[in-house]
Amino acid sequence: MTDHHPIRVLFLCAHNAARSQMAEAILNHIGSARFQAYSAGSQPTADGQPHPLTLEALRSAGIATAGLRSKSWDEFSRPDAPELDLVITLCDQSAGEACPSWPGQPVTAHWGYEDPSRVQASHDEQLYAFKHVLHALHQRLELLMSLPLSRLDKFMLAHHARGLAPGSPAS
Q: Which structural domains are found in the chain, ordered by start?
């Protein structure tokens, strides 16, 4: 892709409170200088805060949560927004919405994960659901990081990123 800047990845989920926040934090944690991750949603939380169990799950995995906030995807369609290389939707609702135009004409992929915030159970069972999604995202992002990104053009990045979707033959 490029030797000049890290691969910029935007993770989308409707409310930008759980899955997309986890993916942003994980990739920034493990991505070294090769990746820069962001997250956003079409309907960010009113208070701008990630789900409390998102933060708890991330912290229990030793992943920093400073600076995480629920934000609108409009922030990433402005002229001063970072040019994106890859946009990954993590919920079916975001995947079905008409997205803004992104700077950099990024490739897209959809990795659908169940929403852990919909689990109606005890705190421990809810936290388990969040940790389960966190672990699944971590594994998927490790696979993304293993791609020879410096040798991929946009078409091949799209092909490989889509092939990493849960349930795809390559995953």
A: 7-163 (3.40.50.2300)
The pTM of the full predicted model, rounded to 2 decimals, is: 0.88
The three-state (H, E, C) secondary structure of the chain, written as one string = CCCCCCEEEEEECCCCCCHHHHHHHHHHHHCCCCEEEEEEECCCCCCCCCCHHHHHHHHHCCCCCCCCCCCEHHHHCCCCCCCCCEEEECCHHHHHCCCCCCCCCCEEEECCCCCHHHCCCCHHHHHHHHHHHHHHHHHHHHHHHHCCHHHCCHHHHHHHHHHCCCCCCCC
- Cα 137 to Cα 48, 102, 134, 153: the distances in Å are 22, 23, 5, 24
Query: 146-153: long-range contacts at Cβ-Cβ below 8 A with a sequence spacing of 24 or more?
Result: 149/1, 149/7, 149/34, 150/1, 150/2, 150/3, 152/1, 153/1
Contact 18, 115 (CB under 8 A): yes
What are the mean pLDDT values of the chain's consecutive 10-residue runs (171 residues total)? 76 95 97 92 95 98 97 92 92 72 86 93 97 97 84 72 73 51
Q: What tokens appear for 9 in the block? A: 């990845």
